[in-house]
Design goal:
The structure is a single chain. By secondary structure, this protein is α+β, with helices and mostly antiparallel strands. It folds into 3 domains: 83 residues, lambda repressor-like DNA-binding domains (434 Repressor (Amino-terminal Domain), Orthogonal Bundle), CATH 1.10.260; 106 residues, no CATH class; 78 residues, Arc Repressor Mutant, subunit A (Orthogonal Bundle). The chain contains 14 helices and 6 strands. The strands form 2 sheets. It has a 4-stranded mixed β-sheet. Strand 2 and strand 3 form a beta hairpin. Helix 2 packs across helix 3 and helix 9 runs antiparallel to helix 12. The longest helix has 17 residues. The protein starts with a helix and ends with a helix.
Length: 295
């Protein structure tokens, strides 16, 4: 057994996955110090070789330097890697991996574009959403689509938008639907009302209760709640009380409201502010149109 080579191979494959020694150790049931010893001239127990190879997505032969060690089944490897993490960390880790892929060379992989040079400490310099200083955004785009992401420590998110052959526009809201949605949000008291429901997602509230808690006058609250219901941001439910029926409201599709308001912040931020990326787009209204324009 070439002990030194095994340690070098483990380090090489671990770093290629941007995996820490701690993450590898947790996945195979050893300490961070044990992984460090392997990579500095020690050797893992033979019984751990299979688990280490699986975690790194390579064969055992690759650990001995007998092959290049390409991943045999990346889907399976990635799923097993996520399962090795605590459940509470999985979504954030997925987001961080995607974001790091975008800024550390996804352009090369997807678009055959020149690599973008980002600061080495870019992920440590993300501006905090909580502090209200704006988002450090990363954008990669070509005629085949967009990749958008933020890698902030306190709130990371990521979006991949492949462009359909017919273009994006057919999937947008109609003009009237846009007016219903954004008109509702523009009403006095609407955002205060929506924020209240976002903070109180598990309960039904009558208009009077919402007005009292938000400080928005009752007539404005009632108009805003009706408009937000038409825009599907709230849900309306009639309940029966001893003295008659009462209209109550609850949050609508919260999983849709979160990206809506998050990307609203993205759009509202001045275009050049905190933007790192490589975007070359002819049009967002269809590839046929793009080809026509180029012609």
């Amino acid at each position: 057994m070439n002990i030194e080579l095994i340690g070098e191979q483990i380090a090489k494959f671990r770093k290629s996955l941007r995996m820490t020694q701690e993450e590898l150790g947790q996945a195979v049931g050893v300490s961070t110090q044990a992984v460090s010893r392997w990579e500095n001239g020690g050797a893992p127990d033979a019984g751990l070789l299979s688990a280490i190879a699986d975690k790194l997505g390579v064969t055992i032969d690759a650990l001995f330097g007998r092959e290049e060690g390409e991943v045999r089944d990346m889907d399976d490897t990635f799923v097993r890697y996520l399962r090795s993490l605590p459940e509470k960390d999985r979504l954030n880790r997925i987001t961080r991996l995607l974001w790091e892929a975008a800024i550390y060379g996804v352009s090369d992989v997807l678009f055959t574009a020149p690599r973008i040079n980002y600061p080495e400490n870019a992920e440590l310099d993300m501006l905090s959403v909580a502090e209200g200083r704006g988002l450090m955004r990363t954008v990669t785009g070509r005629d085949c689509g967009y990749i958008l992401g933020v890698g902030a420590e306190d709130y990371s998110f990521f979006g991949v938008f492949p462009e359909p052959e017919a273009g994006y526009e057919r999937y947008f809201l109609t003009d009237d639907e846009c007016r219903t949605l954004f008109g509702a949000l523009a009403l006095p008291g609407a955002m205060e009302t929506l924020r209240f429901f976002c903070r109180n997602r598990q309960s039904l509230y009558a208009a009077a209760a919402v007005a009292q808690r938000t400080g928005v006058p009752l007539p404005e609250t009632e108009r805003a709640m009706e408009a937000l219901t038409r825009a599907h941001l709230l849900q309306k439910e009639e309940i029966t009380l001893p003295d008659g029926p009462l209209d109550t409201y609850a949050i609508g599709d919260y999983s849709g409201i979160v990206p809506l308001l998050t990307f609203a912040r993205w759009i509202f931020q001045p275009y050049g502010m905190n933007l790192i990326g490589n975007v070359v787009r002819a049009t967002c209204f269809g590839r046929e149109a793009a080809r026509d324009e180029k012609a």
